[in-house]
């Protein structure tokens, strides 16, 4: 079926115009200028963590600004290409134009998604914890597979990944794993992954090759920054130290360098064992603890708002995604309806389509909740 170039180009222009309307380009230019100045400071790398944050934000803002500023001319270029090809009845050039339109459409989709990430903590780095649920060895193996999925997604985009803590299962896989993905808007993008994930497959741990269902829970929280104010009373903390362990429970350290911090009032527990020293593990654990307490505070504020507004139905539900490898091949998000028929590719980090669908779904839920609150 021949493509209607006029309609496709008109749709590109309309989408681009709507994105520009909600994007404050002047503000973006100002941010790029400020970050460029900060990146040029001679003492920038005296604090490596802050330096990485500045350079990462600068790269992200520059890329976003460049795309916004160049789209006008890129759409005009493809429009001119189509006009010339149609005048000369050049099928090869028309095919080239069709490919370029497809590329522009995909890039606009990504830009549009970026405009939806406007939450208070959306631009933060993300701390992801995957915990095995019901399902025995299949569940712990599934938890490890999901952790690897997020790591490979980040690596495919050249994002920095830190493995903060891993609690290995006695059999296969992990009881839990915590990783940190350092990239602008990592939290806003990945927060839609929070919830219960379900796997249905022929169990490699069942000698009778029966089909098993297993579960894993994914938690996503924003990484705290120096400007956040979460007061923690030292008297509310219980701190335990122990030896780091590897697969099968084997000790991988001869000293008590691993740290477990319990925030007694909330029951929040954070373990850290992947740094080399107890001091480093304690500092990393405190940072994640502060992030979780910040998230708890935010969730409590949201609950209070919902109570004031009445019963707003915008919950995630228990199971948010199913991964099935037998008797058929399918990964389906139960909130958005988006599905893929290639589970191996998804497990290898190809989750962008699920993330984009989840972000759009979340925005629709927020709009519906706001509209219902106004009527209450």
TrEMBL record:
One of its GO terms (molecular function) is translation release factor activity, codon specific. Its main location: cytoplasm. Methylated by PrmC. Methylation increases the termination efficiency of RF2. It comes from the Bacteria. The modification N5-methylglutamine is found at residue 250. GO terms for cellular component: cytoplasm. Residues 243-259 form the Prokaryotic-type class I peptide chain release factors domain. InterPro entries: PCRF, Pep_chain_release_fac_I, Pep_chain_release_fac_I_sf, PrfB. The keyword Isomerase does not apply. The keyword Transmembrane helix does not apply. Gene3D superfamilies: 3.30.160.20, 3.30.70.1660, Release factor (1.20.58.410). It is found in: Cytoplasm. Keywords: Coiled coil, Cytoplasm, Methylation, Protein biosynthesis. Belongs to the prokaryotic/mitochondrial release factor family. HAMAP family: Rel_fac_2. Peptide chain release factor 2 directs the termination of translation in response to the peptide chain termination codons UGA and UAA. PANTHER family: CLASS I PEPTIDE CHAIN RELEASE FACTOR, PEPTIDE CHAIN RELEASE FACTOR 2. This is Peptide chain release factor 2. It comes from Brevibacterium luteolum.
């Amino acid at each position: 079926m021949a493509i209607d170039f006029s309609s496709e180009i008109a749709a590109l222009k309309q989408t681009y115009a709507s994105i520009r309307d909600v994007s404050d380009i002047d503000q973006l230019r100002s941010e790029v200028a400020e970050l460029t100045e900060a990146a040029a400071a001679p003492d920038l790398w005296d604090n490596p963590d802050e330096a990485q944050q500045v350079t990462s934000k600068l790269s992200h803002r520059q890329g976003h600004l460049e795309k916004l500023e160049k789209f006008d001319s890129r759409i005009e270029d493809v429009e001119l290409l189509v006009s010339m090809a149609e005048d000369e009845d050049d099928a090869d050039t028309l095919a080239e134009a069709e490919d370029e339109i497809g590329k522009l459409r995909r890039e606009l989709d990504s830009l549009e998604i970026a405009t939806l990430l406007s939450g208070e903590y959306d631009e933060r780095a993300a701390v992801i914890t995957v915990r095995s649920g019901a399902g025995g060895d299949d569940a712990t193996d599934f938890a490890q597979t999901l952790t690897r999925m997020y790591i490979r997604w980040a690596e495919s985009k050249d994002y920095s990944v830190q493995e903060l803590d891993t609690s290995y299962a006695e059999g296969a896989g992990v009881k839990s794993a915590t990783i940190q993905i350092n990239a602008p808007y990592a939290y806003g993008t990945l927060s839609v992954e929070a919830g219960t994930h379900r796997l249905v497959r022929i169990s490699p741990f069942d000698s009778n090759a029966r089909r098993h269902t297993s579960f894993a829970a994914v938690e996503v929280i924003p990484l705290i920054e120096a400007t956040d104010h979460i007061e923690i009373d030292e008297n509310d903390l219980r701190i335990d130290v122990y030896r780091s362990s590897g697969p099968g429970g084997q000790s991988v350290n001869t000293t008590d360098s691993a740290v477990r911090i319990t925030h007694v009032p909330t029951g929040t527990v954070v373990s850290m064992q992947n740094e080399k020293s107890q001091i480093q593990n304690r500092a990393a654990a405190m940072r994640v603890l502060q992030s979780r307490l910040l998230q708890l505070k935010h969730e409590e504020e949201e609950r209070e708002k919902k109570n004031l507004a009445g019963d707003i139905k915008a919950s995630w539900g228990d199971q948010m995604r199913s991964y099935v490898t037998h008797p058929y091949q399918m990964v389906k998000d139960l909130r958005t309806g988006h599905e893929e028929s290639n589970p191996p590719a998804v497990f290898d980090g190809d989750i962008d389509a699920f993330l984009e669908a989840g972000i759009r779904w979340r925005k629709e839920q927020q709009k519906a909740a706001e509209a219902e609150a106004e009527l209450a």
